[in-house]
Amino acid sequence: MKSPVVKRSIVIAGHKTSVSLEDQFWDALKEIAANRRTTLSEIVASIDAGRNQGNLSSAIRLYVLAHFRNPTGGRDVPEHAGHGVSMRSTVA
User: Fold this and answer.
1) pTM of the predicted model, to two decimals?
2) CA angle, 41 as apex, 13 and 15 as ends, to 5°?
3) What b-and-e string marks burial along 14-30, b requiring 16 or more CB atoms within 10 Å of the CB?
4) What angle, 0 to 180 degrees and rounded to 10, lies between the N-to-C axes of helices 56-69 and 40-50?
5) Distance from the first to the final alpha carbon of the chain
6) Residues 6+ positions from 53 with CB-CB distance below 8 Å
């Protein structure tokens, strides 16, 4: 039986690393990057820089979850959502 988790290499701040995520999370992350007109690497670098603990794969899953749970469609979800700060955004 094939594992639902897919390991992919990604460059973060000039360093190559591997991240293991389910295909659905990779697809969601690509969608978020496209909507923000940025790269997957830039989003993952932001998530990585903002995490206080845990592994990068978990941090990405929490970020994607926060993005799609946000009632504004995730536009105001901070890159570090789910990592020691409130997952609710503040609207100015």
Assistant:
1) 0.74
2) 30
3) eeeeebebeeebbebbe
4) 100
5) 49
6) 83, 84
* Structural domain of 32: 5-69
Q: Where are the beta strands (DSSP E) in the chain?
A: 5-12, 15-22
Q: Which single residue is written with the structure tokens 């990405």?
A: 60
With tokens 């570090």, the residue in question is 80
Mean pLDDT by 10 residues, the chain (92 residues): 83 92 95 94 94 91 93 54 40 30
What CATH number does residue 20 fall under?
Answer: 1.10.3990.20
Distance CA 83, CA 60 (A): 10
